[in-house]
Amino acid sequence: MEKLTGLKKIKTAVFISxxxxxxxxxxxxxxxxxxPISINLIISNTCLAKGLKYxxxxxxxxxxxxxxxxxxxxxxxxxxxxxxxxEFICLAGYMKILSAGFxxxxxxxxxxxxxxLLPKYKGLNTHSRAIKNKDxxxxxxxxxxxxxxxxGKIILQKKVKISARDNPAxxxxxxxxxxHKLYPAAIMKIFN
Length: 192
Ligand code: GRF
Fold this sequence. Notes:
Blueprint: E1 2-4, E2 7-16, H1 21-30, E3 37-44, H2 53-57, E4 61-64, H3 70-83, E5 88-91, H4 100-106, E6 110-114, H5 126-132, E7 137-144, E8 154-161, H6 168-191
Parallel strand pairs: 2-3, 2-5, 3-4, 5-6
Antiparallel strand pairs: 1-2, 6-7, 7-8
Helix pairs in contact: 1-6
The structure holds 5-O-phosphono-beta-D-ribofuranosylamine.
5-O-phosphono-beta-D-ribofuranosylamine binds next to helix 1, strand 6 and helix 6.
């Protein structure tokens, strides 16, 4: 736990694999007084994750793990999480599936953001699937991470209208804008 303006914030690790726009957004949120969390660690499975630059920018510890041996990587991550006294994990565009053993051994809350209105469109390519199916609505979901992919208890969702002119890229942009509001709101909901 970290002492910050007299408030103890929950030590949090963010796991990423890509651009990290949600990571940047969560870091910014963590710095406001009412945030219940502080970001103490950034974990990635690839050194190519663009979002790793936010570790330098915001002076947060980062660690990249090689997943050639999945079990070994997860074991090493668990050791680091313990060492850094991490109490909460936010997945933000993390492209590896956490094993049931990892979830159990960590034993604390893990949440994820997914770019669809779950339970619709679990997995990848959510926006193109929604457009292909001529859906009127898309959106995003923050949910607890359970052993089954994209199936944990839903914390919050936000709907986004799909217009006739939308393509997967434009829809992704619209949904991402809402993701940046939804993730902090979900964290507030969990801890308040
Ligand atoms: C987001 O669309 C998120 O919902 C999904 O992966 C994407 C990550 O984007 N899980 P970014 O790396 O946070 O910009």
